[in-house]
Amino acid sequence: MPDDRARARLARALGHALRLRCPRCGRAPLFRGWFAMNTVCAVCDLRFERAQGYWIGAIYVNYGVTVSIAVTGFFLLRALAGWETAAQLALWVPFVILFPLWFFRYSRSLWLALEFAINPEP
Question: At what angle do helices 56-76 and 85-118 cross, to 10 degrees?
């Protein structure tokens, strides 16, 4: 029974994360600007940053997603379209610079949702 509740909590928290909302209530936004994150939920008072260095995990998420897309894309374009390395660098270098900036909010949101699903009350 607890496993079913934990899975449901994870699914709900991930759904809220994709909408950049509080993982607990899903009603309040996590960010008040592009990079500025609220410290607590305005509705349910969930504290978003739970400890110093808390967002290191979000950096790993951002890095892992960026590298996975770039490396997979590189090999797919090489195998399926025959793109040479110079042409691919023209595509992938801007991607690995710009994508993490766009994905920053989602990496934090996903990290917070995953941690909330594991430890709902700090």
Answer: 140
Query: DSSP string spanning 27-49?
Result: -SBSBSSSS-B-SB-TTT--BS-
Does the pTM surpass 0.90? The reply is no
Query: Over the stretch 53-101, which tens digit does the pLDDT of each residue have?
Result: 899 999 999 999 999 999 999 999 999 999 999 999 999 999 999 999 9
Of 59, 105, 100, residue with least CA distance to 92: 100
Residue extents of the structural domains in the chain: 2-118
Q: What helix, strand, coil percent values describe the chain, rounded to 5?
A: 65, 5, 30
* Closest C-alpha to 49, from 115, 118, 117, 101: 115
pLDDT number for residue 102 = 96
DSSP helix/strand/coil, 21: strand
